[in-house]
Specification:
Helix content: over 70%
Number of helices: 17
Strand content: under 5%
CATH class of the domain at 2-91: Mainly Alpha
CATH superfamily of the domain at 2-91: Tetratricopeptide repeat domain
Number of strands: 2
CATH architecture of the domain at 2-91: Alpha Horseshoe
Distance between the termini: 73 Å
CATH topology of the domain at 2-91: Serine Threonine Protein Phosphatase 5, Tetratricopeptide repeat
Strand order of the largest sheet: 1-2
């Protein structure tokens, strides 16, 4: 009763001030409902208003806000878009800016909720993490997927939404990869464009491949949105474009789409030839394509520019492993020794370096020296092996 009286009062006040013709009684009533957090009642009035007056941009804009407050982001996005179309025709820039602020606000709400689910899913490996009753990694990942898709509907051009949705797919692939490939699993699919959900059963192994394919498509869409956004307001300024594209490349590697990966990397390296993430990715791709000599060159560029001694030692170890490959036509154990001895100075506790040095010296006929390095590598391994470890 109180609400009806307030609505009647507002409508009467608008009529007295000569404004009722500009703002319909339904919109006025919906505003009162929204101020009292009665969004379902507001939606009912606003839906009636746009059905009767489909060119009412104001009603569409408020309807978008009301839907968003109820978490109906796909419907909200549709209402906002309709309002923007009408306001654009009328050249009402301030009104469009107001809708943009609504999108920003609700994007933040939806994004943070989805991000929390993803963060909790990733926290299960933390020994200090205490899950809630009935909480699982898979459940959190599913909620995160649903949440980021809802977020996408609020702001489909926001690159970070798609970037983290790609990460959800990647993490789901890792989660289901721990099951037996032939296990039947019940999964929920969410359509990115419509937000619709559908349940089905699938083999765990098949689902892993599906998730990697989804991750690749989503990372590519995220990179496209990022590139478009770089010329605009640059929403995700903390994450460089290379981070997006490395994710695309990693998904290509997982799906054995090597040429596709290389086509992404090459033009980027032409612009930033010393980008270590890209150089590492390029080396991995070239290796898979059998172009080992070029892979070594890429790793050598990384080793020359990296400042972290541990990372440099690991990169040198990768280079040496190529020189010890039996199938590599440029195989050169002496070169491997040279590289490994440089790595040994940087990482004197890395047992892998000593074991590979032992093998390399054995191959060049220096058996005693080889045995010495193998023994040292075994000692380091035993020292570092956790109790009960294999």
């Amino acid at each position: 009763m109180r609400t009806k009286l307030i609505v009647s009062f507002v409508v009467s006040l608008l009529a007295v001030n000569g404004v009722a013709s500009a703002k319909s009684w339904r919109v006025a009533g919906a505003i009162v409902h929204m101020r009292q957090d009665e969004y379902e009642a507001a939606i009912k009035l606003l839906e009636e208003d746009v059905a009767e007056s489909p060119s009412s941009a104001e009603a569409w804009a408020y309807l978008g806000d009301a839907y968003a407050h109820e978490g109906e982001y796909m419907e909200a996005a549709g209402a906002w878009s309709r309002a923007e179309e009408i306001y654009t025709e009328k050249k009402k820039k301030k009104k469009i800016d107001k809708i943009l602020r609504s999108r920003e606000y609700f994007w933040s709400q939806a994004f943070n909720a989805a991000h929390k689910c993803l963060a909790r899913a990733l926290s299960f490996d933390n020994p200090d993490f205490v899950p809630l009753e009935g909480e699982t990694v898979g459940g959190n990942l599913e909620k995160a997927e649903e949440g980021f898709i809802a977020t996408y509907h609020v702001f489909s051009s926001h690159p970070k939404t798609l970037f983290l949705l790609g990460l959800v797919y990647e993490d789901k692939a890792a989660y289901y990869a721990e099951l037996d490939e032939e296990d039947d699993v019940a999964v929920t699919d969410y359509d990115l464009d419509t937000g619709a959900a559908a349940q089905r059963e699938v083999k765990a192994g098949d689902y892993v491949e599906e998730m990697w394919s989804k991750a690749l498509d989503t990372y590519e869409a995220a990179a496209e949105a990022k590139q478009a956004d770089m010329a605009g307001e640059n929403w995700d300024e903390k994450t460089p474009l290379s981070d997006y594209l490395v994710k695309v490349v990693n998904a290509c590697l997982r799906l054995e789409k090597y040429e596709r990966a290389l086509a992404i990397i090459e033009p980027l390296l032409a612009e930033t030839p010393d980008d270590m993430m890209l150089l590492n990715a390029k080396a991995a791709v070239l290796d898979k394509l059998g172009r080992v000599g070029e892979a070594i060159e890429a790793y050598e560029k990384v080793a020359a520019s990296v400042t972290d001694v541990k990372i440099k030692a690991e990169v040198l170890g990768e280079i040496a492993s190529y020189y010890l490959r039996k199938e590599y036509e440029g195989r050169d154990p002496k070169k491997a020794i040279e590289v490994l001895e440089e790595a040994m100075v940087l990482a004197p506790e890395d047992y892998r370096i000593f074991i590979n040095l032992g093998k390399a010296y054995g191959e060049v006929g220096e058996y005693e020296k080889g045995k010495e390095f193998l023994r040292k590598g075994q000692e380091l391994y035993e020292k570092q092996r956790p109790p009960g470890g294999g």
